[in-house]
Amino acid sequence: MNSRISDTTSGTLYALSAFVLWGILPVFWKLLDVVPAGEVLAHRIFWSAFFVTAVLFYMGRKNFLSLLQDRRNRISLILTGTLIGVNWFIYIFAVHTDRIVEASMGYYINPLISIFLGLIVLKERFQRIQWIALILAVIGVAIITVYFGRIPWIALMLSSTFGLYGLVKKIMNLDALSSLGVETLMLAPIAGGFIALQAVNGTGSFMTIKYTTDSLLILSGVITALPLYWFAQGARRIPLSRIGFLQYIAPTLMLLIGVFVYDEPFTRVHVMSFGLIWSALALYTISLIRTSKYIEKRMSNTR
Asked: 0.90 cut: is pTM over it?
């Protein structure tokens, strides 16, 4: 019993740490706003490949590259690598262009995009409550689109790229950290070549601005690998329903940072739009809890 309690507690702390770090990352990326978003992305990919590989070796998973032996895995990993690269770029671009609030909207919408993809691609059954949640979220996005006269493309791109990333991972059933190691290693030569080319042309920021900037660019790999490692550890120890609750910490912190730290606008229209999305997420969470309780009841009855 004690070991079970310990696992639950440590799993919650791992997941909590991951989501808190993801939530405060805009502050880190803001420190790099003197560096173009494309260059920041290249460094994030390059140093992520280094540190994720180091973590995998530390965990004893030295054969993670064997995932590439299967042709289907190779195609899937190229796809997921592209999706996560696009997602990272849009996120960094959003922070650099003072659109953290819109980015937070994307991560609020993400769970709803995931259940929509589950319906369309995996032919999963939708509960009535999930349909209502999805409709509320669509209305929330529509309100902000009509009022400001533009589609919140950052929010939609962040949620859709990460939703598709998760979908492919679910279909392939690959370990999150091992597959990330392969994805970043496949992208690392392109990122490294871009960094080297900029250095040769004298247009790069690395080792030309100041040492703190160089350190932050290297650390971008650490702050990418660390929360993913924590999340993987947490997900192994605690139920999906608890992960479902904790995942809203990240966009909430992002929203608060955008509004109260960087003075981004949060108008009545934002309140209406986010209010509908938050209501949708509340309904989605209720559906998760119901499903989780149903599964637990079925399992207890079969013992």
From this structure: no
